[in-house]
Amino acid sequence: MQIPQSLSGQPLRRRVNLWNLTLKGRDISRGLPRKATLGGEESLLIPPTWENISSFPLVTSLVNDTRPLGLKCFGLKSFFRTSSTLVDNWAFTLHYRITTGVLIAFSILVTGKQYFGDPIDCISRDDIPTKLLNTFCWIHTTFSVPDAWEKKVGVEVPYPGVDKYTPGETRKYHAYYQWVCFFLFLQAILFYVPRYFWKAVEGGRIKSLILGLDCPIVSEEAKKTNRKLIVQYFLSTLRHNGRYFFCFVIAEIMNFVNVVGQIFLLDTFLGGEFTTYGLNVVRFSEWEPEVRYDPMIKVFPRITKCTFHRYGSSGDVQRHDSMCLLPINNVNEKIFIFLWFWFVILAIISGLALIYRAAIIKSKTVRFRSMKIRAPMCDVDNLKIVIKKFAVGDWLMLDFLSKNVDPQNFRDIINDLAEELDGNRFEKTNGTLTTMF
Fold it and tell me: How far apart are the first and last CA of the chain?
């Protein structure tokens, strides 16, 4: 790196001290080191200029970082970053990466529409300021008249759910739309919880086992040494990885319980309308045109009513009815119809994943066939030996290893394991598994 001109006039030792820094203190007001040492000798820094601060790692990383500012500040990129080590399956990924990402995107969309757009527009025949009426109706919520849903639009009512209201009649209030953006973000967090739990329990065990064998181009000596270490690890922990498997199953159960629970949580949030929401939308096209109404409009009405009270000129309380247009519900209805179908599909996939996991626990044949599909290059006989000797926890670790190691290297690992597990080279002495190389 070329030394800036601001340092070119400094003595050589002074320049070395300034450019090869071991920081001891920081000037908090400037965010720059004020003292540095080299070989025990301290030096004061020269007055800061762009030329001599741009080389600091923090400054360089901020300048060269091309990510959007939101990703820098809030770390949202970690939700979407693909991990170099796979310690789960594609069904698991649908929860913590796809669903979490979709929910965060929806939350940002609704937030922008709600706080930076025009979420509500109310009209009244009276002399109430429009801005006041809009703010009041947004804060105090609007309502629909349930008896007006099935009346003919243009004949009996001006819009589904909007009709003359007499005090004492049933009203259905719509308070949820103020909280949609926060609720979606909460859902995103809940979908990430099983992943967070599993990462904390897994602790990078598979990552530490790869030992560079994920690359096909490795020297034979390094391959042999690293394979030996991996084989030693599996043999030394044989039938002691049950907790590892148990925790992964717990995480998969958490995924299933979470998505089913979210369906019922959404149903409560939307006033009992969500569980049948998707089915009603599908059936909508089959209803008679004269009597049918869009179920999406019933759950997310675009026009509602609002009642505003104030004192009149005579001192009595006057009641003013207004109609309110909710453009934000045009977005909400699309979001939640997508979530209904997605959650149902995700719940089915998660349920099938648990059935598959139960089969893995029950049958070594299923484990063998699954591993054979995962690693087709492996010798069938050697793979049978390994699967026969391995408990279900050992199998899971081997399965994860197969996703992260080069196929040829994994084949060699299986061959080495089979050689150690088969015959006289693998013995059980006093209840302890032993091996010799």
Answer: 50
**What's CA 379's distance to the chain center, in Å?**
38
Tens of pLDDT along 91-119? 999 999 999 999 999 999 999 988 887 88
Residue 19 to residue 56: CA distance in whole angstroms:
9
Strands of the 303-311 sheet, one edge to the other: 121-123, 317-325, 303-311, 142-144, 172-174
pLDDT > 50? residue 434: no
In tens, the pLDDT along 39-74 reads 444 444 444 444 444 444 433 443 444 444 444 444
Which pLDDT score, from 0 to 100, does residue 140 have? 81
> Comparing 135-139, 313-317, 331-335, which segment has the lowest mean pLDDT?
313-317
Q: Is 87 helix (H, G, I), strand (E, B) or coil?
A: coil
Q: Provide the 8-state DSSP code for 411.
A: H
> Alpha-carbon distance 121 to 428, whole Å?
78
Outline where DSSP puts E strands in 21-166.
Answer: 22-27, 32-38, 41-44, 121-123, 142-144
The owner of tokens 């299933």 is: 256
H helices of 100-219, in order, are 100-115, 130-140, 180-202, 205-210
Q: Are 417 and 409 in contact (CB under 8 A)?
A: no
> What is the spatial distance between Cα 250 and Cα 268, in angstroms, rounded to a whole number?
26
Instruction: Find the mean pLDDT for residues 248-263.
Output: 97
What pTM did the predictor assign? 0.75
Q: Which residues pair with 28 in a beta bridge?
A: none
How many whole angstroms separate alpha carbon 295 and alpha carbon 265? 19
The Cα–Cα gap between 46 and 11 comes to: 13
The lowest-confidence range among 141-150, 181-190, 364-373, 425-434 is 425-434
Contacts 24+ apart (CB under 8 A), 135-141: 136/306, 136/308, 137/306, 137/308, 137/322, 137/324, 138/178, 140/306, 141/173, 141/174, 141/175, 141/178
Q: 192 is written with which tokens?
A: 């990430």
Single-letter code of the amino acid located at 72: K
**C-alpha to C-alpha distance for 192 and 6, rounded to whole angstroms:** 50
pLDDT band at 292 (very low <50, low <70, confident <90, very high): low
Give the H or E element holding residue 408: helix 407-421
Cβ-Cβ contacts under 8 Å for 88 (sequence gap 6 or more): 195, 198, 248, 251
CA 321 to chain CA centroid, Å, is 43
What integer pLDDT is reported at residue 146 of this predicted model? 78
